Amino acid sequence: MKAVIMAGGKGTRLRPLTSNTPKPMVPLLDRPVMEYTIELLKKHGITEIAVTVQYLPEVIRQYFGDGSDFGVKLHYFEENSPLGTAGSVKNAEAFLDETFIVISGDALTDFDLSEAIAYHERNQAVATLVLTTVENPLEFGVVMTNDSGEIIRFLEKPSWGEVFSDTVNTGIYILETEIFKYFDHGKEFDFSKDLFPILMRNQRPLYGYVAEGYWSDIGNLVQYRQTQFDMLDGKVEVTITGAQLDGGVWVGYNAKIDPDVTVSGPCFIGNNCVVENGVKIKPYTVVGAGSVLSGRRVTLERTVLWSNNYIEQGVEMKGGTCCHNVVTRLGAIVREGAVIGDNCTIGIKSVVQPGIKVFPNKAVEAHTTLNHSLIWGEKNVLNLFGQFGVKGTCGIDMTTSFANKLAMAYATTVAAGTTVGIGHDSSRFASIIAGSFASGLHASGVHTYDFGTGVSAVTRYAVHRLDCKGGIHVRMLEDGTEDQLVIEFLDEDGLPISKGMERKIENAHAQEEFRLIKPDLAGSKKICPQAGTLYSEQLVDMAKGDYERYTIVLEFDNRNMNAVIAGLLKGLNCKVIQLNRMTSSPAELGKWVRSANADFGIRLDANGQNMVLVTDEGEVVTDELLSILQIMIQIRNKQDETLYVPVHVPNIVEELAGQYNRQVIHTKADMRSIMEGCEHQGFHVYGDAIYTFVSIMQMIADEGMALSRLLATIPSFALLKEKVACPWTEKGKVMRLLMEETKEKQVELIDGIKIFHDGGWTLILPDNEEPVFRVFANAASQQAARELAVTYTQKIQDYRKRYCP
Questions:
Q1: Which of 217, 391, 467, 743 could pair with 107 in a Cys bridge, judged by C-beta atoms 3.0 to 4.6 Å apart?
Q2: How does pLDDT run across 151-171, given as a tens digit for each residue?
């Protein structure tokens, strides 16, 4: 059998380790990670190996040559531009004239490849994916199989609501040459996203083999260090070079260690190292070949040094990583999680704070404390996006330089010369960040419309209405935390951008691959103060009717909505008792409604997104009942045959939709899916309480009945919501156990696991931003719903106690 080693990755998340080094050449205990892959293949009798390369290919070629020094024969296939995982293997099609195995050159594993190959042959598969279980499946492709091992579903880098298992794709595949007929040479094509779904659609035998053993994809800096600690602990079956001494201490050839050195294992000291008197090497330290630890009071603990580091007296490193040829001067301190790139100098008695990154060829001045990474920008994480957009603390995560860089990353997803609309709330900081974001867009050749102060719904509508290719809204959060700001990203329809677009922005941001333009092509700002007027005028036009006889009590924050609300109320011409203080409770709002004999009361949050609704009788409408009212608005305002509703909405929606001959389709519970399903002329009943308020007024006017009577027409139902704590590391396993238990039951896997029972259902939905599960139970009575909720919250707790360490 032949093999393909995928060795073209840049390893963006490992920078600055991979600034000068391709990811397959990043050292683990002084040897490139790809060398362990070659050893594993050779162990299982596979010596004819293709190597696909792209990023810094000569570094790989120079080290491994033709493979003869390693007992194998290597054949190199280079991509000139990214072709995707399958596309790069297609380059080696002429070489791959028999069943072959694809394996990553930048992951460490000791899987039994022979057993995986035998499994592939027994099942006469066209493709077999080698799978494993992990604690956090979000960064991997989740794969679901049936009892026979056939693959039934793929979820590439899922959200938590799509994590139906903790079994993931390791990127190791056993393939037949048949796969090449499904795609063309020279075109970008991916195994997981493209090829495997095609094989499933064509009903070709596609299997998953769950391997036992160790696997680490070395996907980030923390995992990089931990993988070496695992090697020192013997958790993975690999060969460690050097001699093993007592206490798990490994020492390489010609290493010179002074007798007075304190060495505590497990640790590794490479070839030709010099460790002088007074040095303390504590557990989980890796000292690369040729490094010199010079003198007294040097302390290294849980630290990784690559080759040829020079450490002077008094240096203290705990949890740091230093690449090749780093000089750390007298008395310097490198703290937990700090990473120092090639050829850097850390000055005398300087301090590199936790988590700081110093890119290659930089110098840290003597007697300084480095609090910011020496790299363009301050926030270089891959996963920027949360539920509503990019969130952070003002002045810490959210700075003008971060916003500027984020804007340039976003600009790579829209064409130069197009226009993006930008709105913000009334806070000064949001206005500053919006301005910095606009500057980044202008520097990337993108024009902006300045929508000024307003709420998200106005920005969404203006983007939808005007010639915008996207939109941005910046606002402070009202979630009980101080100084939290969010940047919302919208597509050209005014919807939250897709997950795919989020990943493109995150990748551009992490790789700092921004668009360069000539000065005369820079973008410009256009003032668009009429955005709020466009919004309110369209709402009034849609709500045509006579509302003079209606009285409402309205409470809102006038800093963000005053202009919009004023124009809206003038157009509706109803009587309004306006409360601007935002200090009363919902019960007090009810008292105002009763005392004024009003038709209903509304309280809008600061972003006009959520609302408290009070009936003419002064009763506060529950969130569950409000969601049904919003569905009734959808039915009235959209005449489509299909009604799209979130997966957690009570099942009486089918009964309501049936009265209007509508078919119900459930959507995911994320904001894009929800808004996409309810869009009406640029407005969205979910996420826009102003539009909901106007629609309610229109509904009671058209029906000629009070709000309390209208709500009384809704069939009775019970929906309970519970929250169950679960650490991130245990979520995937809990989801897999729930899936295994519900195999014989009727389930729906749109978002989370929805289990149907007689007269109701239970939805287990992992939260994307908190370490919790949300459990929804829907039934005909409160008692039945409570029993369902208790049953599944208890199951989650029991699974954690029994199966999670």
A1: 217
A2: 888 877 667 777 777 788 899
